[in-house]
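hi! just following up on the protien thing from before. the input was this:
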Amino acid sequence: MSTTTKKNPVVDVTAPNDPTTSLGFRLFLLRDLKKLTQTKLCDDLGISKVNYSRYEKDLRSPDYDTLLKFATYFNVTTDFLLGKIKEPQLSCDLMEDFDYRFDINKILDLCEDLTDDELKQVIRYIKFMISERPHNDDDNL
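and the predicted 3d structure came back as:
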């Protein structure tokens, strides 16, 4: 007798070619914006660090209550976390804490321990961000 497993709806909303819709990637970015360690975030939310690490790596999907905890904690909608909308509509407080000036060495340090698949995801994200940038000849970014 064969058994079928029901797909988790959190996983179903991610687009395989668009890493920006990945729940794990968005959780990582939001955590990084707040300059939090996984341990601190897990302590604040009362969740397992092992499970959270799996959420960020897209190896596991949180249940509904945990998803709501993330949305409330980061002050974003569940639609943003699930990749249904692009813009997180972050509060001003969160944006003020973010340092936009990453130097290349810091980026390389962050990538040092990533697997090949994770590095490919980062590269896809960078390419996606470049492709989404408005084309303006006056803009030298």
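The chain has one domain: 16-131.
The CA atoms of residues 6 and 12 lie 11 Å apart.
cheers
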